[in-house]
Amino acid sequence: MAYLLHILIIINIYIIVGLSLNLIAGYSGLLSVSHAGFYGVGAYAAALLALNFHVNFLLGIAAGIAAATILGFAIGYPSLRFRGDFFVIATLGFQMILFDVMNNWMGLTNGPLGLPGIPQPVIFGFQITTHISFFVLTLLFALLVYLVCRRLVNSPFGNVLRGMREDEIFAASLGKNVNLYKIVIFAVGSGLVAIGGALYAYYITFIDPTSFTVAESIFMLSIVIVGGSGRLGGSIIGAIILVTLPEALRFIGLPNAIAANLRQIFYGGLLVAFMMFRPKGIWGEFSFRR
Q1: What pairs with residue 123 in β-bridges?
Q2: DSSP 8-state assignment for residue 246
Q3: How far apart are CA 61 and CA 194, in angstroms?
Q4: How far is 198 from 43, CA to CA, in rounded Å?
Q5: Which of 265, 268, 180 lies closest to 221, judged by CA?
Q6: What is the maximal distance between C-alpha atoms in the chain?
Q7: 48 touches 197 (CB < 8 A)
Q8: 124 has a pLDDT exceeding 70
Q9: What is the pLDDT of residue 289?
Q10: Is 82 helix (H, G, I), strand (E, B) or coil?
């Protein structure tokens, strides 16, 4: 039962991740490979405040959102001057920079040694310690992020994002400040994924830079592509599939080192297959192959 709840908690966290990245990649057409970096910013911001200043859970979440949003603006402004493949390369570069900062800034992040002993959350005097309470907590946050994203994509702002995704020049000809919309949605997506990062830090009670690598960003992008870009439901489907299916390798009896590599092969193969034969994903409306 504890194992099943653990998987469900991780699914809820990655649903938040998938929804936030779908705003950037699926609804805006901006293929970002830096999402794990912002995920890590949320995790480190919440963890450092909890460990060093005993900041409570909700303020820690808010601080993570603020830090990742501000960084999203700072990174998005220069990156979004590029288009297509050049934008992907720019976000990849920023992802590597963020990882290097986490891995080498010993005075702040403790480098590769990580941050152990992150206190579990306390909300209005109620301490979240059991798997079932963490499941309810992450489910509520996943629902909240879904409602925020749904409200956003169904608004006039979301219509502009779709128009910009389909034909950026035409959207600009209608008087829309395309660059401003790109920067705003990049910052919003970066802030929302920080919620998932903070929840991950509070749940695992230990973080280190290996959880926020380029490979993790590619995994997050796989959730959007496999589940379906341009539809929020696709992110939910992608998170469920990509978290649960590789868990089957645990029951085959393979050594951990081999199973971990097979998971990476599984993710990569699935990503290539969907890009080739099902570019809209299982339930999506936007094809990156265009």
Answers
A1: 126
A2: G
A3: 8
A4: 4
A5: 268
A6: 59
A7: no
A8: yes
A9: 62
A10: coil
* Token pair recorded at residue 286: 């936007």
Q: What stretches of the chain show up as alpha helix (H) in DSSP?
A: 2-21, 35-53, 57-79, 85-104, 106-109, 131-153, 156-166, 168-173, 178-204, 214-227, 232-244, 256-277
> Kind of pairing, strands 126-127 and 122-123?
antiparallel
How confident is the model over 201-214, as a mean pLDDT? 96
Task: Provide the 10 A C-beta neighbour count for residue 68.
Answer: 30
State the Cα–Cα distance between residues 82 and 77, nearest whole angstrom: 10
Rounded CA-CA distance 276/258 in Å is 27
Q: Classify residue 181 as exposed, middle or buried by CB count within 10 Å of its CB (0-12, 13-18, 19+).
A: buried
pLDDT of 290 strictly over 60: no
> Which CA distances in Å does 124 have to 13, 80, 128, 272?
22, 41, 11, 46
Assign residue 26 a region: left if phi > 0, alpha if psi is -120 to 50, beta otherwise? Answer: alpha
C-beta atoms surrounding 110 within 10 Å: 19
Q: 123 — phi, psi (to 5°)?
A: -120, 115
